[in-house]
């Protein structure tokens, strides 16, 4: 994130640096020759504190009216809460500790873009959030700093009629376009048929915005992805917001694939940590059930192949009973050799501690107990699936699905999860972005075989408004490939 501010004929640039473990806010002060001095930091947080730049959106503005630009932040938490924070500029060019303000559990981070403007002309900017509601209407919501330096005084500046605007087709900027001392809001609007139009929402005396004023238009030929809008605060290039990358362990294709399987699935803390080190924000992992649905466990195979001990079907053995019990077995080859099998609860807890989103595949073999004609077995099994989610869904990003070919199990999963009140775990799945024509093999095919498909998916799903989660078997390589292609 970088924004510039020119004040008293001198400029400065501020930027957040993600340091793979901590994040720091740096300032570059302008020198007398027009260049910039060595950056210095005035704020730092570690990932352990829950600080992740990928979950934040930034705007700059003089929110307290002291003549120096401050930084406003919309922060998104894995539990579904969004919160506003302020970094107030200090006289020396640094920034103070963030002050928390308004927060809500009703906003979806991906539906918000943030801006700044002095819409009522009082000398102080408001932090403004354009929100794309699920019912089709859009609104611009303004927030002012209160006496404690926190964003509050939520008010609606603009309410757009449902269906009139598609936020992903807009490039929004703010500025005093009619010279009345109040900032207005303008947008370049690109239609899907390559028509284009400029629309202005002029600020009124009370700081709310008036009806849309349509001006320049082009009947054909201007495409949105080629348009760059310039404004007071050095607007960013028209690149999509970087996706949250989800990692998935590769499994070979073809006959006797199990012979070549290297057990790469992140079904344990070591795998979670590895994917996090590669830059992933979540993983896709595998949920099985032991005999009679008595224990939810994280394992990708229908059998114990790849684990120490005698080979057996997972659904035929107990978790902690009998000579063939699953508990205590360890992976016997591959990069995670020596790691043990974890219960669903243990794995979710590890994902939470490492701040990794959990995208869980309920394996088809689990249908043996989940769809069992014996009600006791059936209900025991479903408790092993739903209870761990219920215990954590309010504080942790969890999604669950089962393969499309498991028709009956899928229908029952949807019914049970929705009845338990956790329908959100069935929505907004990350998108698979690897080419179906390039399967995983051992050794792995080069990631370059995926580049064309990744670009196609980024063009298809990426937007300048929100981050679209994408899952891949090459998380480290996808994260590296995305550098310079998104913001």
Plain-language structure description:
- By secondary structure, this protein is of the alpha+beta class.
- It contains 7 helices and 24 strands.
- A hairpin with a 6-residue loop joins strand 18 (282-289) and strand 19 (296-298).
- The longest helix is centred in the last third of the chain and has 16 residues, at 375-390.
Set out the fold topology:
Elements: E1 2-7, E2 10-18, E3 22-29, E4 40-46, E5 56-61, E6 70-76, E7 82-87, E8 99-104, E9 112-117, E10 126-132, E11 138-145, E12 151-160, E13 170-175, E14 184-190, E15 196-203, E16 209-218, E17 245-248, H1 269-277, E18 282-289, E19 296-298, E20 342-343, H2 344-353, E21 357-362, H3 367-370, H4 375-390, E22 398-401, H5 407-419, E23 431-432, H6 451-461, E24 470-472, H7 475-481
Parallel strand pairs: 17-18, 17-24, 18-21, 21-22, 23-24
Antiparallel strand pairs: 1-2, 2-3, 3-4, 5-6, 6-7, 7-8, 9-10, 10-11, 11-12, 13-14, 14-15, 15-16, 18-19, 19-20
What characterizes the major β-sheet? 8 strands, mixed
| Model regions low in confidence, pLDDT < 50 over at least 5 residues | 1-10
* General shape: elongated
> Can you give the helix content as a percent range?
10-25%
Number of helices: 7
Average pLDDT confidence is: 89
Q: What's the count of strands? A: 24
Strand content: 25-35%
Structural class: alpha+beta
Mind telling me the C-alpha Rg?
A: 26 Å
Distance between the termini: 8 Å
């Amino acid at each position: 994130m970088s924004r510039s501010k020119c004040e008293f004929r001198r400029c400065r640039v501020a930027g957040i640096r993600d340091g793979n473990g901590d994040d720091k806010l740096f300032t570059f002060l302008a020198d007398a020759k027009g260049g910039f001095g060595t950056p210095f930091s005035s704020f730092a947080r570690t990932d352990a504190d829950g600080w992740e730049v990928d979950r934040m959106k930034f705007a700059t503005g003089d929110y307290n009216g002291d003549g120096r630009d401050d930084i406003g932040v919309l922060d998104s938490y894995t539990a579904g809460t969004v919160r506003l924070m302020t970094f107030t500029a200090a006289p020396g060019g640094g920034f103070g500790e963030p002050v928390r303000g308004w927060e809500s559990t009703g906003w979806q981070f991906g539906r918000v873009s943030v801006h700044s403007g002095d819409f009522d002309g009082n000398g102080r900017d408001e932090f403004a959030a354009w929100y794309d509601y699920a019912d089709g209407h859009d609104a611009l919501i303004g927030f002012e700093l209160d006496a404690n330096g926190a964003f509050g005084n939520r008010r609606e500046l603009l309410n757009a009629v449902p269906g009139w605007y598609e936020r992903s087709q807009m490039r929004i900027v703010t500025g005093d376009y009619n010279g009345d001392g109040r900032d207005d809001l303008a947008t370049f609007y690109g239609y899907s048929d390559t028509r284009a139009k400029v629309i202005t929402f002029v600020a009124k005396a009370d700081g709310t915005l008036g009806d849309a004023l349509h001006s320049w238009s082009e009947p054909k030929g201007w495409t949105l992805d080629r348009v760059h809008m310039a404004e007071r605060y050095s607007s960013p290039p028209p690149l999509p917001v970087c996706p949250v990358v989800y990692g998935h362990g590769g499994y070979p294709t073809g006959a006797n694939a199990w012979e070549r399987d290297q057990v790469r699935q992140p079904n344990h803390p070591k795998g979670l940590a590895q994917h996090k080190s590669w830059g992933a924000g979540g993983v896709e992992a595998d949920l099985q059930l032991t005999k009679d649905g008595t224990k939810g466990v994280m394992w990708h195979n229908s059998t114990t192949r790849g684990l120490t001990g005698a080979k057996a079907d997972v659904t035929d053995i107990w978790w902690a009973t009998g000579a063939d019990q699953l508990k205590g077995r360890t992976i016997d080859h591959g990069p995670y050799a020596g790691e043990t099998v974890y219960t669903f609860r243990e794995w979710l807890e590890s994902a939470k501690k490492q701040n990794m989103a959990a995208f869980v595949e309920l394996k088809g073999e689990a249908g043996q107990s989940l769809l069992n004609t014996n009600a006791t077995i059936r209900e025991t099994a479903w408790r092993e699936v739903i209870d761990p989610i219920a215990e954590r869904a309010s504080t942790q990003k969890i999604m669950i699905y089962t393969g499309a070919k498991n028709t009956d199990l899928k229908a029952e999963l949807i019914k049970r999860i929705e009845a338990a009140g956790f329908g959100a775990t069935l929505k907004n799945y990350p998108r698979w972005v690897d080419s179906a024509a390039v399967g995983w093999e051992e050794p792995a095919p080069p990631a370059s075989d995926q580049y064309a498909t990744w670009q196609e998916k980024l063009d298809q799903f990426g937007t300048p408004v929100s981050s679209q989660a994408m899952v891949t078997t090459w998380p480290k390589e996808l994260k590296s490939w995305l550098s310079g292609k998104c913001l």
